[in-house]
Amino acid sequence: MRKKIVAGNWKMNMELAEGVALATGLNKHFLAEPLKNKEVIICTPFIHLGIVSSLLDAPGLTAGAQNCNDHKSGAYTGEISAAMIRSTGARAVIIGHSERRTYYGEDDTLLAAKTAEALRNGLMVIFCCGEVLSEREGGIHFDVVQRQLERGLFFLPEDEFMKCVIAYEPVWAIGTGVTASPAQAQEMHHFIRGLVSKKYGMAVAEETTILYGGSCKASNAAELFANGDVDGGLIGGASLVKEEFCNIVNAL
Ligand code: PGA
């Protein structure tokens, strides 16, 4: 049985006290209403990570980062290593988010190096892929996603690949309020599972968790998660409000 996951991506939001309050509230909620057969990961800014990781003790609820550096350590001013992230108690890291690809010029080669470094340090990788609007309109969205996965992820041996989760996030749906339709999400997730199957075999593909991200909220989560190949969500804006985020987790 593959894992069902809802991951929150706080992005560059919330000062320390606000983030701690939200994490404390979520922890309380999931102690009172235990997560059964699913995991919740809150991916905070680095500033919050140490304190949030140490305050979470609800079973199935863990913290993650939104990025890591590709080097082990050294003179990289302003950067954060995968080992540092792991040392906070965080369990996961998002790699290849479209905002990192677009605003910080992160390419497939760099993302492959970050993925390898994260895995070397025992972090679960949430690897993002997805096309921009012009690529979908041009009918090349499958090619784009295939290339991103082949270059960023499929260099891994099977046992390492199995520590990764894939997040399909159509860029035109991120933060826009426009969600992919359940049919569009299922179509791409099914395609992605097929790619994994071709590369690693059917058994691995069946075990691979594929999340949907892009304007997923409590009001549309259930119809997205109802699809056979959608195993949860990567949630941006809607992860900043406790009730909204908990309702998304309930929808899974
Ligand atoms: P959104 O962001 O839910 O605010 O659209 C999702 C993401 O970028 O991970």
Q: Summed up, what is this model?
A:
The chain has twelve helices and eight strands.
Walk me through the structure.
With about 250 residues, the chain is α/β, with parallel strands linked by helices. The chain has a single domain (about 5-250), classed as Aldolase class I (TIM Barrel), CATH 3.20.20. The protein has helices at about 15-30, 45-55, 80-85, 100-105, 110-120, 135, 140-150, 160, 180-200, 200-205, 220-225, 240-250; strands at about 5-10, 40-45, 60-65, 90-95, 125-130, 165-170, 210-215, 230-235. An eight-stranded parallel barrel has the order 1-2-3-4-5-6-7-8, surrounded by seven helices. Helix 3 links the parallel strand 3 and strand 4. The longest helix is centred in the C-terminal third of the chain and has 19 residues, at about 180-200. The relative contact order is 0.14. The structure holds 2-phosphoglycolic acid.
Number of helices: 12
Helical proportion, percent range: 40-55%
- Name of the level-1 CATH class: Alpha Beta
N-to-C span: 15 Å
Apparent shape: globular
User: Going by CATH, what is the homologous superfamily?
Assistant: Aldolase class I
**Which structural class is indicated by helix and strand composition?**
alpha/beta
Total DSSP E strands: 8
Architecture per CATH nomenclature, i.e. the level-2 architecture: Alpha-Beta Barrel
Query: Could you say which small molecules are bound to this protein?
Result: 2-phosphoglycolic acid
Mean pLDDT: 97
SSE order? EHEHEHEHHEHHHEHHEHEH
The CATH topology label is TIM Barrel
Point out poorly predicted stretches: none
- Counting structural domains, the number is 1
Instruction: Write down the Rg.
Output: 17 Å
Percent of sequence in beta strands: 15-25%
